[in-house]
Amino acid sequence: MTDSAELRVRINEATKAAMKDKDKIRVSTLRLVSAAIKDRDIAARAEDRCEGIDASEIMSLLAKMVKQRQESAKTYEDNGRPELAEREREEIEIIRDFMPKPLSEDEMKSVIASLVKNSGATCLKDMGKIMGKLKSGYAGRVDMGKAGAVVKDHLCNQAAD
Prior knowledge:
By secondary structure, the chain is mainly alpha-helical. It has seven helices and no strands. The chain starts with a helix and ends with a helix.
């Protein structure tokens, strides 16, 4: 995973390039991303973490922004506003340019199985431990909603054996 400073530079350079290209959607989306990162930085400083947020937290933030836009696109589609839904999908693609490639379903299951095995997790009480490791090690690469169901299923099946 790239470090926080490198990711911030990439976003800043992409914003400048979009401004030169007069790509309004890309500029506005990247400005929203930058603003969200700065907001999180300010919150982190308030918690005495002077450096701001790290790369994994930025990835989590980007994943959250993608999820929000997916929900908005669905709402717009359901309400007969395909042009607004398309705008949301365009923003999703712009944000995903800064995220690592998501894990496939099989890769996610393999990672979860490995985390469960290596952590010694045996029951649902250990689910939080596994989810924490997933969130820190695979931020932005895993849909945490889907991962939670897989972890739960894996732990339940393991307990049944």
